[in-house]
Amino acid sequence: MKNENQNEKLDQLNTHSTSNENEKLTTNQGLKINNNQDSLKDGERGSTLLEDFILREKITHFDHERIPERIVHARGSGAHGVFKLSESLAEYTKAKFLTETGKETPVFVRFSTVAGSRGSTDLARDVRGFAVKFYTEEGNYDLVANNMPVFFIQDAMKFPDLVHAVKPEPDNEMPQAASAHDTFWDFISLMPESMHMIMWLMSDRAIPRSLRMMEGFGVHSFKFINDKGKVHFVKFHFKPKLGVHSVAWDEAQKISGTDPDFHRRDLWEAIENGAFPEWDFGVQLIPEEDEHKFDFDLLDPTKLVPEEEVPVQIVGTLTLNKNPNNFFAETEQIAFHPGHIIPGIDFSNDPLLQGRLFSYTDTQLSRLGSPNFHEIPINRSINTVHNNQRDGHMRQQIVKGKTSYEPNSIGGGCPFQAMMSEGGFTSHQERVSGDKIRKRSQSFVDHYSQAKLFYNSQSLPEQTHLQNALIFELSKVTIPEIRERLVGQLAFINKDLAKKVAGKVGVQVKKLKHPNQSLPADSNIEELQSEEREPDTKSSAALSMKDTVKDTIKSRKIGFIIANGADGKAVNSLKTKLEGEGAAVELIAPSLAAVKADDGSLLTPKHSLTSIASVCFDALYICAGAKSAKELMSPENKHHVLNFVNEAYKHCKALYFGADSKEIYNSSNVGQKKHEDPAVITWDTADAGKQFITAISNHRVWELEQERNT
Ligand code: HDD
């Protein structure tokens, strides 16, 4: 039967797929194996014979089954999907997948953290990669994006330094998947250009609730070229239909222990359950002639274009609807490259992008081991490849014919160059002239205005989280001078922020002498870095998560804490209601044994109180029923139940206490509350089910965090 989510790329992958179902075990040469238990020996107790080709093949393959992990973005999770265009961009670009309304293009998306190794936790405080490979009819187009719209550095020359600084320190290989250490903050404190990105990195964006609930940004300005040769600068955006949501830092750290695969599992389960993650795809378009109309440089990747100045036009939907069949073959072997473009899209002169154009192919050569990495099934384009490149390690394609050069007459001149009208790619022709020079443009030197813009745009809870993140990170820095220098940088963004952080990390706010090696020697440091340069009042609503989408509980995970004697009717009716809204309900009981409800029905728990933690759920229902409540408050269970409740409360989640759970309520921290709290629903709340749903869709009551924690 044809899967309804099948697409051209999946059809192509099928031709490379195999299944072992009902098959006999063979060697790699197809020889059927009769004994996979014992090696060939010189007598039952004798030494193993060199002749044992079956053992040798098995061990040799095993010995070579690891490849180098990605130098950055090693930890990742991916899925197949489709991009559907809803508005034609033909006025701006000739890229076919963006011009034919209704057109569906197969995609593979890989999300990642940046700093950690392949096996590191998903919940590290980090940037998330959001790399999309569009398998278009004109060839592969890769949008190698992040979940933050700006970057740490302005020039690719600094990329190895940045990565060396954030990765585990070279002497002791610590810490894993964390920016909270000396070398990272040493580098950052000396690089004022990173301060805007640091605001994003210290914000809750760095600890997403789900990969399905984060934005994607192409970061650089790219170019769109239409069929008349007209150029627009373009910034790419993905906006999640479920809204942008995060977890608390305390929660993130606990999730890292309880379920380091939290994001990977969440993505996998959502797709398996048919709750396909979706994003609106949008563009900000700037006519070429307006390039210099902004108070920053469009080529500077540490700057964003505020949505108030250039709105994001939504033109399509990205949907992920199929999990990979094989992690290594697909998610690990996929090779992205910002240089994989198609007619109608071109690069800007952003010096970070220019460096990336070299780096990605280069890294695949060492990671995947051969210039034929494009032939690995997941990397193949859906249109066929024809050129005179040949041979090399692991060549798969068998190209017929005598010629592998051009021009040729023996092969009839094939393959031919394509004319532009036939889809032949031409780089956009533009006039360039300049001195050969190693110098940063003066238009790149304002490092603080947009850092301020970001900080000013945050709601109060978001600002508090950002301060606390800085305090946490800098508290792990052992060298006071580095802490002091970083606080000095913060003072250019917001004095109050600097003071608060300084007070907690044991340093003074001092005026910096700017040991900034990235500034041109002849720049006017005083003028460029004065905090008076921009008023502190500018803000942009789009930069805060406060007003993000909050109208759905689709795919949220709700834990029901139950025990024998639970009110079966209440449990089932709430469960049906929540599931009807698309949420996933999981039952948690004192053990994995079936729970006998008061009406005699059996409820099967998915978890026991000790096998999962509160941090793995978006909301909790403490089940109704006097007998159930009594068992939950027994000496054996009480501690676990209260821990669940207290953590959910601390992390600002929705809690619903069913009938007879008053003792649990009173014994927990919730019972101490003296404030109104719309996310605490009890046995006497009117229209409790509806209130619970509203509270879950609001994600968290961050605005009550202080009240809930005092
Ligand atoms: Fe990069 C991987 C995104 C700057 C060099 N990068 C990588 C991935 C993402 C990004 C999402 C993971 C792709 C995957 O899932 O396989 N990188 C970015 C963004 C950047 C950026 C949004 C700035 C706007 N990167 C950047 C620079 C360089 C690199 C400046 C080098 C000069 N990036 C790499 C790399 C990686 C990579 C070393 C590691 C694995 C890979 O490429 O395939 O080449």
TrEMBL record:
Annotated ranges, domain Catalase core: 26-414
Keywords: Heme, Hydrogen peroxide, Iron, Metal-binding, Oxidoreductase, Peroxidase
Pfam families: Catalase, Catalase-rel, Catalase_C
Compositional bias (Polar residues): 12-38
Region Disordered, annotated ranges: 1-42, 516-543
InterPro entries reported in the protein's UniProt record: Catalase, Catalase_AS, Catalase_clade2, Catalase_clade2_helical, Catalase_core, Catalase_haem_BS, Catalase_immune_responsive, Catalase_large_C
Keyword S-adenosyl-L-methionine: no
Recorded coiled-coil stretches: none
The EC number(s) this enzyme carries: 1.11.1.6
Keyword Oxidoreductase: yes
Compositional bias per record (Basic and acidic residues), positions renumbered to this chain: 1-11
Enzyme class: oxidoreductase
Gene Ontology molecular function: any one: catalase activity
Cofactor: heme
Reaction catalysed by this enzyme: 2 H2O2 = O2 + 2 H2O
Function: Decomposes hydrogen peroxide into water and oxygen; serves to protect cells from the toxic effects of hydrogen peroxide.
The family this protein is said to belong to: Belongs to the catalase family. HPII subfamily.
The protein, known as: Catalase
High-level lineage: Bacteria, Pseudomonadati, Bacteroidota, Flavobacteriia, Flavobacteriales
